[in-house]
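Same chain as my last thread, 858 residues:
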Amino acid sequence: MSRKSSNIILFLSCFMLAAAAHLVFLYQWTRRHYMVGIDDGSSQMLPFKHLLYEQYTSGEFFYSFDFGLGAGTFSELSYYFSTSIVFLISVIIVFILESLNAIPSTDVLFWANAAVFISVVRLSFVLFITSHLFMYMKISRLSAFLGASIYGISGMYFRHTVYWEFFADAFLWLPLLILGIEKIMREQKPGWFLFAVSISLIDNFYFSYINFLLAGIYILVRLVIRLSPQETGWLKAIATFLITGIIGFGISAVSFIPAVYAFLNNHRPAFEQEIPWIDLSDNILFTSRFIVLPAIFVLFLFSVSLYRHKAFQLFAALGIIGIMLHYSPIAGSIFNGFSAPQYRWEYFLSLVAGGAVAVGMDHLQKLAWRQFAVAGALTAAIYLIAAMMDKTFELKSLSTLFIISSLLITWLLVLAVLQFKQPRLKLLLTGFLIFSLLIFANFYQVEKLLKIGQIEHVNEELLTSAGYNDPEVQGLIEEIHKLEDGVTYRIDWMEDVRNNTPIVQDFRGLSAYSSILNKNLLYFYLYDLEIDMGRESVSRYATLGNRTNLHGLLQGKYSIKEKGDSNVPFGFTEILSSENYIVYENQNTLPFARAASTVYHEQQLSDEPAIVREHAMLTGIVLDGSEAAHPLPSVEEQTSAFKVQEADATYEDGLLTIYGESGGIDLVRQDSSFTEGDLYVSFHLKHIEPDEGFPLAVNDYHTTRKSNSSIYRTFVDDITIRIPAEDIVKIRMPKGKYHLTELQVFEEPYQVLQEQSGGNTGLKKLDIDGSQVQLEYNNTEKDDYLTVNIPFERGWEASVNGEEVDVLKANYAFAAVPLAEGSNEIKFTYRPPFFKTSLIMSVLSLIIGFLFVYRKKH
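reply #2:
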């Protein structure tokens, strides 16, 4: 049989096995249920695929004003799909099919439908590549296929695919890296390693970091365990790895450098909790969510005679190291960038377990059956100990019964092979092992994903209903679009806690949810303006806290509220309604671009309350600096006009002790002179109990705070809440002890906003086209600066009347340029950070890499 025919048969076998491993989700698909997580899967993966597909197929690759308040999607979504090889190939195929009218429109629901089929194809290539890796290591085809199955058909593959689909791409690149390492060690050929390094770094910087740590462990062990005397010397091998790795980094620079910059320009509070060195609570033989070791691997680890073979020594040593790392949260933290411990790297354990089993199967008939009987006894003892130590162990669960049955049958079949020496028995054993992998994978999908992970609820009904994409709200949004002919208006609306609702429902909103966001915007929300988002959590921003000044500044022209919700921003009037919702329109909007000469500086405002910072942005421009500037706007504090009264609580020296089920303090106004406008209530609040989150209410406004031990806590305890003017301000929390200090109350009658919104604007023309913004501004007032509602980030360049100018950071998180007198033609252009330099680096490195590989080959 020719090599080509052999590869075709192997791939078809991999494809059929991959399809069989997805039987649960393929059946779910026929019922319009999807292989998508109910939280991040539907809130991030689907919206980002939809957004990027629309961008890429329209010719825009770098920036989107539809992602939150605007973002460089090439860099900020590189953690997800913007440079994912699997996604890019999917885009090309889907675009061709859509062009041929072979598929319907590609909305979020389309990507939910496609998820299981993309996963089947990806897993087919995982199995195919890994089989070739093991065959290259002199393992027989059938045993290599079995080893690849242990790697690919593992619980972690399906866990990654369902919850965070881009994580599953790492399954492709790890065996390629190992193949590249073996090529250098055996033949001194760096081509495959160069390719694997480059594609890993291009595909996803986060998983390239994990894969390189794993590859480093493999290299260290591989340098110790040499598989043949003719292999490359360790000094020469290390030199080749370093040189090839550097060239590979250079090739990936155009993708990797902007991605890393976005990561560094993100903001997430440091993980401050203590991380233990050892945690033995997870049971990797029965109940682990991450990795359940196959019984045959455990049996082989106790088979002493297998250690005569160098390849088995290699994989067994790596497996033992992997098991030790699994039980160390410190290792989990290192693999997660020295942050909270995560177990995303453990597909490596599946890979080396597959390698050990593959080698063991090739040398199985050389084992002494009595020795293997001892191995079986030791394995049984280990399983018994694991069951006794696991408090969650359930003997009657389907997965437990299957694992025990599989262990017994495997042990008996191996003994039969050793006793009777029949090739058919070995083939039967291999078939049973692959069959058991399939059964366990489907058990895992049902128990751990569909049931515990609630994936069974992700269906067409969910993705087209209230809480995700409410048709009633969608109708109101379409009515709003009909009213507008501009491109800058934004709608304040979010389905439940799904911050990427604007992407799903195709409108420009005020919220975003992503592991990487523009640090300037996060600081704007968390620290500079203290905007409460209705829910404390990292990696997201949402709404504007119903603060009309901010709505006016950021073109928040419309707000959609449920009927009965009293938290309507001041100055918003009802214009549309449906059965359950009302659309309100802002009567005090400001233009996308505003000129200013009154300059304030951030340092000057650092100790001022949020309302003073709002007025500074309204009356002038806030620049990044500490130089002497214009006197600050005057806002009088009104805290002394209120008397503090306790409500089912005691409050003394900043310590609030609530003894009722709900309580707190009341701020009672001593006079009622202020009735038209809002109150800004600011305070510092921290729960003394470390492990309990809590709801917080200020009159009719409700929000939630995370527990002090939560990894999603922002650690921002300075809170500013806007409420309509009232004579009594009720601050309520559940029973417990709190530190409540720095209490301040300010009145906001909105005179400043109304003055600014009623003025003339010099903005004559505006065109927003993705990564390019062009406008004309007539500077009749001879102002010095023009602020624009483009979030400030590295990558923006600007010209005024054809001359390049610096893009300034203004109003804490947005862009500004200097203005000339009279008419100004202004152009903003965005390219990912360091794009030109990194592109040149990639091209030059590609040429160097080609010459390097060619020289080594010849």
